[in-house]
Specification:
Heat Shock Protein 90, 3 domains, ATP binding, transmembrane, nucleotide-binding, membrane
């Protein structure tokens, strides 16, 4: 619509520019033609046309405009150049009108695509009797160039006006129309970050957008309720398990004095207690740094790993598996990081799903301390690597083996509690590397 209105306004403006330029040229040359008609009156009566021919030549040289004078019989009596054909269509029309005592009509507007000269004729009159006509053949190249420049300026002005209208009116309207979709996009990003209580407004919107907003809100509510039920289930299960586990531990502690076998049962009870604790923490930690407020001294990750590896070396040796302790670079991390739980999951997975040798190392990478566990098994495909750490996810190669798919999810949750993350990658030479990357505490004194 804006473009149509601009075109409608441009057409008369373009015609005005061309008509005005043409009229200005016609009037200025008409004055010159009138002067020649006055000067030709006496020579046409006397027949002495030498001076008249000289005037025509001088005018032609000065203004680059050919001039000629004809008598009433259309014979050329004086001209600034030879070869004048009075029967040319434009000249014939002008002479017919002029020799009949009428002023010729104004020529058409000079648009850039039109060519040719402008014919300006004036009658030579004496006492009301027409003696002949003075005719100028006016070049129009400069006038057409002026019109072209004016049209280009007009076009530029129209483009600027359309741009200003688009920026000033259309763009705000577009923003207003798309605002509901932007709100929906922002809400979707909030949902993906874990803010499941995010909702979008559906008031005062188009019916289609209102239905889309209602559907989004229903989806978000379902996700929120599912997450709440999951938390409640894990919390209730953890609470219900703590009491019988505590009671069982008390009884087994008494039996452990009488039977060495009971000590193994006591170890399993402790392991169940740690599992319950991890499940409870997994359900409650949805954002990084949730438990990160602590006044305790930083924990040396390398030292904590070496201490835990003492027991695991015996476990691996009993299964005839090689456990290699690699580089151990000291690095302070948040004291609440559950290093034992993380290392237990990674080494248990490596022993079940990987192949020896299994290498454990602690290094620094910029502002992070990296705990790496590498095995030499089959590894994972590129798609599976992206899913490592998702709850209840298991690789297609390992689904027949015992497990719940929660081990690496617990590791990821533990790392996230202190602002860390878990990464998986295929190393050179095959196998799989699981990296737990946690922030380095700068003021740690090794």
């Amino acid at each position: 619509m804006v473009i149509i209105l601009a075109v409608v306004a441009a057409v008369p403006l373009a015609n005005y520019i061309a008509t005005s330029t043409s009229r200005t040229l016609f009037l200025s040359r008409s004055n010159d033609a009138d002067w020649f008609a006055t000067m030709a009156e006496s020579p046409l009566q006397s027949g002495d046309i030498a001076n008249l021919r000289e005037l025509a030549v001088r005018y032609h040289e000065l203004y680059n405009t050919p001039v000629f004078v004809v008598d009433v019989d259309r014979r050329v009596v004086a001209t600034s150049r030879s070869g004048v054909e009075v029967n040319e269509p434009d000249l014939k029309v002008a002479l017919d009108s002029t020799l009949a005592g009428r002023l010729p009509a104004e020529p058409p507007a000079l648009f850039p695509w039109r060519t040719g000269e402008m014919v300006v004729a004036r009658p030579v009159v004496n006492n009301g009797r027409v003696l002949g006509a003075a005719v100028l053949r006016v070049p129009t190249e400069k006038a057409r160039d002026q019109v072209q420049s004016g049209l280009l300026l007009l076009l530029g002005g129209l483009l600027i006006s359309i741009g200003a209208i688009v920026i000033g009116i259309v763009r705000p309207i577009t923003r207003w129309v798309l605002r509901p979709l932007n709100d929906l996009d922002n809400a979707t990003h909030q949902i993906t970050r874990g803010a499941l209580d995010t909702r979008v407004s559906t008031d005062g919107r188009a019916p289609e957008l209102r239905r889309l907003g209602d559907s989004f809100n229903s989806m978000a509510l379902s996700l929120h309720q599912a997450r709440q039920r999951e938390r409640e289930f894990v919390a209730d299960a953890s609470h219900q398990l703590r009491t019988p586990l505590t009671s069982a531990r008390i009884h087994i502690e008494g039996l452990s004095r009488l039977s060495p076998t009971a000590r193994f049962a006591l170890s399993d009870i402790d392991r169940l207690g740690r599992i319950v604790q991890r499940l409870s923490r997994l359900a409650g930690s949805d954002r990084p740094g949730a438990d990160a407020d602590s006044n305790e001294a930083p924990l040396d990750l390398a030292q904590a790993v070496k201490e835990r590896l003492v027991g695991w070396k015996a476990v691996y040796a009993a299964d005839d598996m090689e456990l290699v302790i690699g580089e151990m670079v000291p690095g302070g991390v948040a004291p609440e990081l559950e290093v034992d739980d993380i290392l237990d999951v990674l080494l248990d997975n490596a022993s079940k799903y990987g192949a020896p040798p299994v290498e454990v190392s602690v290094t620094r990478d910029g502002t992070e301390v990296v705990l790496s566990v590498r095995d030499h098994g089959l590894g994972l495909g590129s798609r599976d690597l992206k899913k490592v750490g998702e709850r209840f996810w298991r690789s297609a190669h390992h689904r027949e083996m015992p497990g719940t798919g929660l081990g690496l999810a617990i590791v990821r949750s533990e790392a996230a509690r202190v602002g860390g993350r878990v990464a998986a990658r295929p190393p050179i030479g095959g196998g799989l590397v699981i990296e737990v990357r946690v922030p380095l505490i700068d003021d740690y004194d090794a």
